[in-house]
Amino acid sequence: MAELTEIRWHARAGQGAVTASRLVAETAMDDGQYMQAMPEYGAERQGAPLKAYTRISPDPIEIHNNILHPDIVVVLDDTLLEVVNVCEGLKPNGTLIVNTRMTGDEVREATRAAADVKIATVDASDIAINTIGRDIPNTPIAGALAKVTGVIDVESLKKYVERSFTGKFSDKVIAGNLASVDRAYEEVHV
Amino acid sequence: MSWDYSGNEQWTWDQIPLGAMTLEGGTATGHKTGDWRVQRPIWHTDKCKQCLICWMHCPDSSIKVSEQKMCGVDYEHCKGCGVCVQVCPFNALSMMSEKDARELDEKEAN
Amino acid sequence: MPDVTVLASSGDQMVAEAFRQANPDVLPVYPITPQTIIVEEFDKFVAQGKVHTEFVPVESEHSAMAAAIGASAAGARTVTATASQGLAYMWEELYVAAGMRLPIVMANANRALSAPINIHGDHSDIMGCRDTGWIMYFAENAQEAYDDTLMAFRVAEHPDVMLPVATTLDGFITSHALERCELLDDETVAAFVGEYKPERSLLDTDNPNSFGMFANLGNFYMETKLAMRKAMEGSLDIIKSVGKEFEAVSGRPFEVVKTYGTEDAERVIVVMGSSIGNVRHVAKQLRAKGEKVGVVGLRVFRPFPSNELVAALKDAKAIAVMDRCETVGGQGGPLWQETAAALQSVGITTPTRDYMYGLGGADVTVQLIEEIFEDLKTLEADKAAGKVADVTYKGNR
Fold first, then answer.
1. Is residue C117 exposed (0-12), middle (13-18) or buried (19+ Cβ within 10 Å)?
2. Under CATH, domain C4-250 is a member of which superfamily?
3. pLDDT score of A1
4. Which of A45, A80, B101, C302 is deepest in the core (most CB within 10 A)?
5. What ipTM score was computed for the predicted complex, to two decimals?
6. C240 exposed, middle or buried (CB, 10 Å; 0-12, 13-18, 19+)?
7. What would the pLDDT profile of B70-100 be if each residue is shown by its tens digit?
8. Residue among C267, C353, C341, C279 nearest C310 (CA)
């Protein structure tokens, strides 16, 4: 990546968007990049729509505001497509990644995304249930992000997950998370 | 006593200790407040039962005590507030104007 | 060379790390958002035995500062942290700490003041304390929050300074966002910060002394204030020399006034805190298009670095000052007032305009900054025509 990449995350509070924003940022940092990760503070009620942000850059990041014009938008819950304009401010030729069973065309229609927006879909919730055992779509969707955008390296992501989860979670949970990354990486549709 | 603070009223900003600190303990001893007095307590030894209630109440530590006994008033520091007179249960202390007291002192001296 | 750990950290976490490495004797505190992470993390260090600090949970911020004053007068290296209403509640005690010349170090996560209730970042709280006699640093990011906190001990405890220091970081923007940060190793920091050996303390029973004396009418009060002013003025050189020393240790440059593009800039924005980066980000884009714009960011607000600011602004043709604190009814925000006075004192008459922005955490967008740079193109003519107010709101509806 030659320049600053800005990612906006949409989720409902409690779905792990903040963790995902950090997961991706810290993976990039492990690979020598500069990063920022922050939620849009205030919405701390379970289920309320919230946004989180990740910035990644090879150079120090000076700007400290909300991301209004993201390169990438990630949606962790497709019920948000009806209530939030997830494509708002998305840059030309931007990427939209959605955790959903819908097809890319269905997402494009639901979001009224511009023709130049690259749409990727992955059933990260289903993957999470089958690998981790719970509907925590944030780890697998980071794998999908790695595949679709290349903004982070999938092997670095897995290394980071393994290192940061060790000591906090059981080997089974760690293995499940790693498997979820692999599966989302393989199964994401563009 | 080793801290020389004589002439402190004339000290300039750079001569005053940091944060206007007092650099020694017990400096109140050198601060004579006896000349603030308009009236003074007179101790009547005949009525005194040595209960030391005056000593407990004096706000300026001006009741002199020796060998656990009241032995007089420190007129160098006593401000003449009269608390000792108010609290004495035996009327062993009473107030007298400074003017009268000084005249009495002079008479006794002569 | 020091051992450096790269970590993903919030500004609050970095301040907690700096406190840990300085190993204070006493930390009295009452938690308040967005400072809470600092004391939560520090409390863990206490529980883990990583510091020898006496952690004193108190019932209010007023008590926190009162306890800090007592501890510092007793000779302890004393730290605390607060924000917003908490800092406001400390206010009268802040004067006591400074007047008694106690080198307390306090982190403040700058936050709006009620009403309306708002937990987000602006400078209303800290600016309310700007005349209390505390030295004030403003961090641009989490790294600077760490660096400033470490330097603060050296500055506060310097025998020629002996004033409390507030190291501030913008609420949520800097206090909570995760950034790539560098942590120096404990030994390097311990050697840099050193030990606090007060010349006088209440617990020094061999040399008894009294703190917080009564200065009666005409007796010592003005002289004591003048001594504070002199110490505060003199502290700027010490802030700089400690900064240069830290620069040698950390490899990170330290300037009380950070400039970008001012060597040839015609239009300059003066700003503090996390927004410095935002303005620099925009200025870089505009300069790439050939626009002569510049940025002046203050890292230290007290003592006010007047000469450094004037040197950075002397060639500008139009100056915008961005204030993140209302002074309702005043001529302008605190940064504008100081800037205008600094320029006026040396006879510079360059037109200036004060922009009120980011109050209550309002987003500081690229567009907002671009608009300010655009406004500056016609500032002189607009002012002459009476078209612009001294104080202009940006980013409001």
1. exposed
2. Thiamin diphosphate (ThDP)-binding fold, Pyr/PP domains (3.40.50.970)
3. 40
4. C302
5. 0.93
6. middle
7. 999 999 999 999 999 999 999 999 999 999 9
8. C341
Contact A143, A100 (CB under 8 A): no
Structure tokens at A7: 């990612």
The β-bridge relationship of strands A72-75 and A5-12 is parallel
Which CATH number goes with the domain that contains B72? 3.30.70.20
How high is the mean pLDDT of chain A?
A: 94
The residue of B2, B3, B12, B18 whose CB has the most chain C CBs within 10 angstroms, and thus the best one to mutate to test that interface, is: B18
User: Looking at domain C257-393, which of 3.30.930.10, 3.40.30.10, 3.30.499.10, 3.40.50.920 is its CATH number?
Assistant: 3.40.50.920
Tell me what percent of the residues of chain C surpass a pLDDT of 70. 99
Q: Which of residues 190-219 of C touch B (CB under 8 A)?
A: 199-200, 207-213, 215, 219
**CATH superfamily, with its number, for domain A5-187:** Pyruvate-ferredoxin oxidoreductase, PFOR, domain III (3.40.920.10)
Q: Is A32 exposed, middle or buried (0-12, 13-18, 19+ CB in 10 A)?
A: exposed
Residue of C nearest to A33 (CA): C180
Among the residue ranges A1-15, B80-94, C151-165, the one predicted with the least confidence is A1-15
| Interval C358-368: pLDDT, tens | 999 999 999 99
pLDDT bracket for residue A112 (50, 70, 90): very high
For residue C49 the two structure tokens come to 């035995």
Cβ contacts of residue C265 below 8 Å, gap of 6+? C292, C293, C294, C315, C316
